[in-house]
Amino acid sequence: MGNYIWSDRPSHTAFPVASAGYSFIFAAALTTFVFALLQLTVLALVSLAATFFICYFFRDPDRVIPKSDGAVVSPADGKIILAGPVENSPFFNGRGLKISIFMSVFNVHVNRIPYEGIIKTVSYHPGKFFSANLDKASRHNEHNAVGLETDQGKQIFFVQIAGLIARRIICKVKEGDKVVRGQRFGMICFGSRLDVYLPLDTNLKVRVGDKVKAGTSILGDLA
User: Fold this and answer.
1) What is the pTM of this model?
2) Per the domain annotation, does 105 fall within a domain?
3) What is the pLDDT of residues 193-219, one digit of tens each?
4) Of these residues, 7, 47, 192, 217, which one is catalytic?
5) Active site residue 192
6) How far apart are CA 94 and CA 90, in angstroms?
């Protein structure tokens, strides 16, 4: 595949769906079936539309991952709402780079590993549920922070942050896991945000307003 690789085995279905969505899809489909049996046509149609939307929300498309040396890929689909240096990073001593990605309900919500290395920390923090596009969401919202050390000894942190209606953060990696760039590691249900913290000397490749895709868009190059 030239300059791209598969980090996960490709799916064998035309429309792969994340396993976290199965229960939501089943509940919506069952509700549609009951409304149809009761001949509640309008409610059945509304419920059917909701079922299709839930399937769409939990879609989990395969992605090919760039092989470029030093490339840090986006861990989420969405829009860049912050990209630049921060003075007081919660993870680095001193300054670092912070990139914030806002995921609307229309984005793919499966999250992917931004760089290969070893998972050093996984830290869940309960909190509030402000709208994920607000800056205070990084500090106050429920979140799950994952710390990764690259083979070159550099530190990368990526933080899954719940949003206004998001109430479930899924993270499938644990301390000590060896991971590869672009590998699926979790998701956040129904609208959310993901913050990435990189060393200050990283060559930033994105700016505010850019649209990115998990696993394929390059956020920056490690020096």
Assistant:
1) 0.90
2) yes
3) 899 999 999 999 999 999 999 999 999
4) 192
5) yes
6) 9
